[in-house]
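Hypothesis: this fold can be encoded by more than one sequence.
Test: take the structure tokens below, design a sequence, compare later.
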């Protein structure tokens, strides 16, 4: 596979038609079609479903799209690393992060860094720990911001402060709003959604499993989620409550939502991780120094 062909394939997926992709790439439509057909022959599988007026990736095509994004992104990043003189601080820093107030520490460091080096661009990718680790391992991201990641010692990492506090997101007319905090027994009367990484075999696991303790058997777990936004809509519609980090979802005012901390307190530590034994690009190394200074 050539990088050029992968770029062609990604453009076709993005544009949805051969004609629009050909215009974007400044090639003829027959030439583009031949390149895609050659890629399909090379891989031995159809990558696109051809419709009357559009094309969509097949299941194998979706897999290739994800891998092509990683390959092309890594190639572009590597080229930029070698073409940018060290004395000029510019280029791209890629950060993957879970939803966490801890990202504010990274944001403050990025603000200070760009004030000195305006040629630097930050690229943020939100996702789950599994997604973030995959991107870190494949070199797509320079750093990953992880919450209570159990295998963190596989990576070089920097512990951020403060920690993330867990609590309950609920409708603002929920009876629990009358309480300052919420205990394990308070959550057994209505369905709840749990973060998918802390739910195993329809039971709370990890930090949350320890916190619920003997009350875990009485929970009505309505489901799981990976990122907060859509899960908060389920809460607002009255389906359930949601166990979440503090400050992730807006509450009060006309949001229809309220948040109460768990008690006894449950917290997650926050780490910025990067691959051990792999040299960071020059700009990323300088930013890491800035971030360490902010933490100190």
């Amino acid at each position: 596979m050539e990088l050029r062909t992968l770029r062609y394939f990604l453009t076709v997926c993005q544009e949805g038609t051969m004609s629009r992709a050909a215009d974007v790439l400044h090639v003829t439509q027959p030439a583009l079609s031949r390149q895609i057909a050659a890629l399909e022959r090379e891989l031995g599988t159809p990558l696109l479903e051809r419709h009357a007026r559009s094309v969509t990736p097949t299941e194998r095509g979706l897999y290739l799209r994800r891998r092509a994004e990683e390959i092309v992104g890594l190639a572009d990043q590597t080229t930029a690393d070698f073409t940018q003189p060290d004395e000029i601080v510019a280029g791209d820093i890629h950060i993957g992060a879970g939803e966490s107030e801890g990202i504010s520490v990274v944001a403050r460091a990025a603000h200070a860094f760009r004030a000195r080096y305006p040629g630097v661009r930050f690229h943020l990718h939100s996702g789950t720990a599994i997604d973030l680790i995959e991107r870190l391992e494949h070199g797509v991201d320079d750093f990953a911001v992880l919450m209570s990641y159990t295998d963190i010692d596989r990576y070089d990492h920097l512990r951020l402060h403060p920690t993330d506090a867990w609590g309950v997101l609920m409708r603002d007319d929920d009876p629990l709003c009358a309480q300052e905090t919420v205990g394990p027994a308070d959550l057994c009367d209505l369905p709840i959604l749990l973060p998918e990484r802390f739910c195993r075999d329809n039971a709370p696991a990890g930090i949350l499993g320890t916190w619920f303790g003997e009350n875990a058997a009485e929970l009505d777990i309505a489901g799981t989620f990976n990122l907060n936004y859509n899960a908060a809509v389920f809460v607002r519609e009255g389906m359930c409550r949601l166990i979440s980090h503090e400050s992730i979802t807006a509450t009060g005012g006309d949001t229809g939502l309220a948040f109460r901390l768990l008690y006894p307190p449950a917290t997650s530590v926050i780490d910025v991780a990067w691959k051990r034994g792999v040299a960071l690009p020059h700009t990323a190394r300088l930013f890491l120094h800035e971030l360490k200074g902010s933490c100190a």
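The chain has a mean pLDDT of 91. The two ends are 46 Å apart (CA to CA).
Hypothesis status: open.
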